[in-house]
């Protein structure tokens, strides 16, 4: 709510309101992504989801910057190494991070305390 209210301050600075295709397209991607984020947090937990989608943002921005906006990199080797390191970290975090299982000691201790 605060973001919605304060975003109008830009109009007070003299910026005109414009509607573009890119803004509409961004909104069409944002809403399903937010719904998937809620589903992901419920299933994997907040820390795993935030780490995963932050890495995905960086990878997506990297690809868009190079392919769509034709931005140049200073060192292709270091860029590739950074991209590879981020990818390995993303796969490792996603593979080896999982929420604790609900079975085992937790269920047996709760059943013994209720008797």
Descriptive notes:
The protein has 115 residues and is mainly α. 76% of the residues lie in helices and 0% in strands. It is built from six helices and no strands. Helix 3 runs antiparallel to helix 4 and helix 4 packs antiparallel against helix 5. The chain is flat. The chain starts with a helix and ends with a helix.
Compute the number of strand runs. Answer: 0
Low-confidence stretches: 106-115
Largest sheet: none
**β content, as a range?**
under 5%
Shape label: flat
Number of helices: 6
Helix content: over 70%
Rg over CA atoms, rounded to whole Å, is 21 Å
Question: Could you tell me the mean pLDDT?
Answer: 80
Tags for this model:
6 helices; disordered C terminus; about 0% strand; about 120 residues; flat; mainly alpha; about 75% helix
In short, what is this structure?
By secondary structure, this protein is mainly alpha-helical. 76% of the residues lie in helices and 0% in strands.
List the helices and strands and how they pair.
Blueprint: H1 2-6, H2 9-12, H3 21-44, H4 46-68, H5 76-96, H6 105-114
């Amino acid at each position: 709510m605060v973001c919605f209210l304060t975003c109008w301050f830009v109009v007070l600075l003299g910026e005109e309101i414009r509607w573009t295709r890119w803004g509409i397209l961004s909104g069409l991607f944002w809403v399903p992504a937010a719904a998937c984020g809620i589903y992901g947090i419920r299933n994997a937990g907040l820390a795993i989801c935030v780490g995963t989608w932050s890495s995905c943002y960086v990878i997506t921005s990297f690809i868009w910057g190079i392919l769509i906006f034709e931005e140049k990199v200073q060192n292709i080797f270091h860029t590739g190494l950074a991209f590879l390191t981020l990818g390995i970290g993303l796969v490792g975090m996603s593979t080896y991070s999982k929420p604790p299982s609900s079975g085992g000691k937790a269920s047996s201790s709760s059943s013994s305390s209720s008797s």
